[in-house]
Structures are given as C-alpha cells and as structure tokens.
Amino acid sequence: MTKPLKKQRLSVYLDPDVMKALAAHAARRDLSLSLVAEAGIASFLSPDAAERQEAATTKRLDQLDRRMAETFAVFIRFWLTSNPPLPEPAQIAARAKAAERYEAFVTALGRRLAQGPKLRQEISEDLFAPANPDGNPGV
Known about the structure:
Blueprint: H1 16-29, H2 33-45, H3 49-82, H4 88-115, H5 119-127
Helix pairs in contact: 1-2
C-alpha cells in the first residue's frame, strides 16, 4: 500500500498590497492563507483558466457597455430637457439637417460594420496580444 503524497512547502514573497488582499480574502471566507493561495495557483494553472478569464473580461465589458448606454441616455435626456425648442421655421431646417446627418451616420456605420472587426474583437486582440520585447502589451 502506498502512502498518499504529502503537500509540499513553498515560500513566496508577496507585495504588501497583495498580502493584505490575500489576508482579507482569507479572513472574509474564514480560510487559511495557504488554502486560498493554493486555490489561486491551481486556478491560474488550470487549462480552462484562460476561458474563465475571458468570460470574466466579457462580463465586465458587457457591464461597462450597459453603464455607457445608461450614461448616454441620461445625457440625452438632460440635453433635451435643458434646451428650449426651436421656433417653427428653424425646426423645419433643423429636421432636414438632422435627416442628412443621420443618413451620413448610417452610411458610415454600414461601412464600418462591413469592413472592420467588431469592437469587442479588437479589445480582446489588444488585451491578449503578445508582449513586446520591452514587456509592454502588443498594442
């Protein structure tokens, strides 16, 4: 009968901020520092770690997208309520100009969507690009 393998000891040096975060996380979960560190290292080394990281990044980007849309909507509402309406003759000219600008926007958007990669794809390419020799991301 073989003995089960004993856990190996490892000493590491952590930045003070990382150590504080590790200690706080372990205290919140009522776990030992060693157990939290082991779980973190195992997660980092697991084959699906990249997929989980991508999923977390996508989730954060989606949240950011929703916040930006919400912020933009609040700005538009504020802008519409704080600007007085145009006089009748100016409204006709403003509507014509708005229709012209909207058509230009839709045309430009159509060109962009037809030719280029999606913004989400560009962001993931920037995030996961190999590092340059100087250690900076390949952006």
